[in-house]
Request: fold
Amino acid sequence: MMKKCILGLVAGLTLGANIAMAAENIYPISREMGSGTRGAFTEIFGIQKELKGKKIDATTTKAEVTNSTGVMMTTVANSKNAIGYISLGSLNDTVKAISVEGVMPSVENINNKSYKISRPFNVVIKKSNPLIEDFLAYSINAKAIIEKSGYIATKTKKFVSKKPKGKLVIAGSSSITPLMEKLVESYKSVNPNVVIEIQQSDSTTGVNVVVEGIADIGMVSREVKEAELKRGISVRVLAIDGLAIIVNKANPITNITKDSVYKIFTGEMTTWDQVK
Reply:
């Protein structure tokens, strides 16, 4: 009898611990305003509200704001109850990606359209020149580099550089920056006559500095807005990227519904025991 009571007590304590953990507060982590990743995320999951006929971001003010992909991942990796979102190509083993509606984020699942949470990696320019055209032609058709980095290439034409001389300044999205760094390094091996500077910030800044003539190429990790196009820029798709929902590796959750993501990031769902 004593043994049964002890076992029952241990089981009860274990169950209680699990319930307590499951009911812990959710710690939503967001990207900053102006981030293309945030823009794509809020649009895909409908985390928006109407204001004077326009849809605006409705992310809860209780979410912690991070200013880059790297900071997002570090924050989630260091908090057991955190949940955030990143570029699929940036995913590493410091955090855990979870499935959405039962489908894991992967290049294969984006290609077969079972995982629908994806967005374009765009580049924008205002003024063109032979160096810009040569570099973009190389980058957009760099299928091996794009796919090895975890993204989906959209074009595969054969490229022969004309090796123009000059300097390029490329600025914008922190999500696109890691891929762009690889493309720049590879392009320099084909065309050693070029100097290329990359300035990491966010997608909106990427558009603004191109419009203002500060940068030659802007990196935009979301759809380019109609109002931005009216400022005289043109857009090209560099690659397709998935968005991954990430949690701490100690979190037992493996799947989440789109509705739960919406409710977490609008502040309607605040504890893990509510998550479906």
In short: Confidence is low (pLDDT under 50) at residues 1-21.
